[in-house]
Amino acid sequence: MWFRCDGLGWGGWAGGIVGWAIFVGTLILVGIGVVWLARQLRRAPLATHERADPLEIARRRLAAGEITIDEFEAIRGRLAT
Questions:
Q1: Nearest residue to 76 via CA among 57, 56, 62, 55
Q2: Where do the structural domains in the chain lie, given as residue ranges?
Q3: Which pLDDT tens digit goes with each residue over 16-59?
Q4: Of 4, 68, 72, 77, which one has the greatest count of Cβ atoms within 10 A?
Q5: What is the dihedral of CA 23, 26, 32, 38, to 10 degrees?
Q6: CA nearest 58: which of 32, 40, 80?
Q7: Cβ contacts of residue 55 below 8 Å, gap of 6+?
Q8: Is the pTM of this model over 0.85?
Q9: DSSP 55
Q10: Distance (Å, whole) CA 47 – CA 13
Q11: How far, in Å, CA of 59 to CA of 71, rounded?
Q12: φ/ψ (deg, to 5) at 32
């Protein structure tokens, strides 16, 4: 026996709406994934085999305003010993 769907159920207009919703949802998820990946790659620099210089890190933190001059001087004093 053959079954037909004459505009009722998933074969009619409702199926078209669901199909488009799945398509648009997939596009949105792919877009979100691309944006997330781009942000992750921009945030984390490529790994280098060189060890970061602690004094240079302290200088960058001072320049960014993360630490005060007094804190920088204390770090520099501890690294000198």
A1: 55
A2: 49-81
A3: 788 889 999 999 999 999 999 998 888 766 555 556 788 999 99
A4: 72
A5: -110
A6: 80
A7: 75, 76, 79
A8: no
A9: H
A10: 52
A11: 11
A12: -60, -40
